[in-house]
Amino acid sequence: MSEYKVVALDLDGTLLNSAMRMSEGNAEALGEAIGKGTQIVLATTRWYQLAKRTADRLGISTPIISSNGARVTRPESGEEVLHLTVDEEVAREVVTLADDNGWEMFTTIGESTYMQMRPGIVEEKLPAGLRIADRTSVHLGEGAPTCVLVYGNEGIAEIQKLHDARFAGRARFSFNRPPTSNHYVVITHPDADKASALEMVCGELGVAREGVIAMGDSESDLGMLSWAGLGIAMKNSPDEVRKAALHVAPSNDEDGVAWAVKRFLL
């Protein structure tokens, strides 16, 4: 019987392939592990409703970590175990700057995540919780954002300047530079991170860190990979992430999660 009781999985670049889908190979391996008593914790930068769709496919009810650790939610009841929000001034300046420059951005406010329209999008077919906005900043009055993601090197450079000059310590700025996709920065509450959220969830599940496997592919996953008893990076991760992990799995397009499950759990 495996010594590991919990597997924490990032979504983009880890459990999901480049087409943003969970492969049959990953789903089958996880299903077998779940059948043997392993508990799966999803830990993603994406918004809660998107993560819940994957949880529903796997048939799991463990708390979901979303928005880079800013929110922890019980999927069966929708109860929030944790919900941290971004400082109002920080959020307004970043979101307005992104609006003014047309940068790709996802901003989660309550149960809605706002993005700009793109060519080819059919609004009625968007995933649950995703909304189109000409300017996201007009929606900031609906509540404090849980998370702001901005994509692209231009946006990252300008937001880095804001962080260094004025906002260091007032929010967490997680800069991610995946080698095979667009670079991005995640802005959350300063106390929000996947490692802390995972520790909270595992405490509730009664599992010590030594019994946890964590898998991820980005700089936002570094804390989680270090905290867990076994940290596994994907082959498609940046060098910094691969060097920080105890093992490197095949890429997200090569069913790396299934490889890890078969090697360490089955």
CATH topology of the largest domain: Rossmann fold
What is the gyration radius calculated from CA atoms?
18 Å
Number of H/I helices: 8
Report mean pLDDT, rounded to a whole number: 96
C-alpha end-to-end distance: 8 Å
Helix share of residues?
25-40%
- The CATH homologous superfamily of the largest domain is named HAD superfamily/HAD-like
Low-confidence stretches: none
CATH architecture of the largest domain: 3-Layer(aba) Sandwich
- SSE succession: EHEHEEEHEEEEHEEHEHEHEH
Largest sheet: 6 strands, mixed
CATH class term of the largest domain: Alpha Beta
Task: Provide a compact summary of the structure.
With 266 residues, the chain is of the alpha/beta class. It is built from eight helices and 14 strands.
Would you kindly provide a written description of the structure presented here, covering whatever features stand out?
- It is a single chain.
- By secondary structure, the protein is of the alpha/beta class.
- The chain folds into 2 domains: 6-82 and 193-264, 3-Layer(aba) Sandwich (Rossmann fold), CATH 3.40.50.1000; 88-188, Hypothetical Protein, Haloacid Dehalogenase-like Hydrolase, Chain: A, domain 2.
- It is built from 8 helices and 14 strands.
- The protein has helices at residues 24-35, 48-58, 88-101, 153-167, 194-205, 222-227, 239-244, 256-264; strands spanning 6-9, 39-42, 64-66, 71-73, 80-83, 105-109, 112-115, 130-132, 147-151, 172-176, 184-188, 212-216, 230-234, 247-249.
- A 6-stranded mixed beta sheet has the order 8-7-6-9-11-10, covered by helices on one side. It has a 5-stranded parallel beta sheet with strand order 2-1-12-13-14, with helices on both faces.
- Helix 1 (24-35) packs parallel to helix 8 (256-264) and helix 3 (88-101) packs antiparallel against helix 4.
- It is globular.
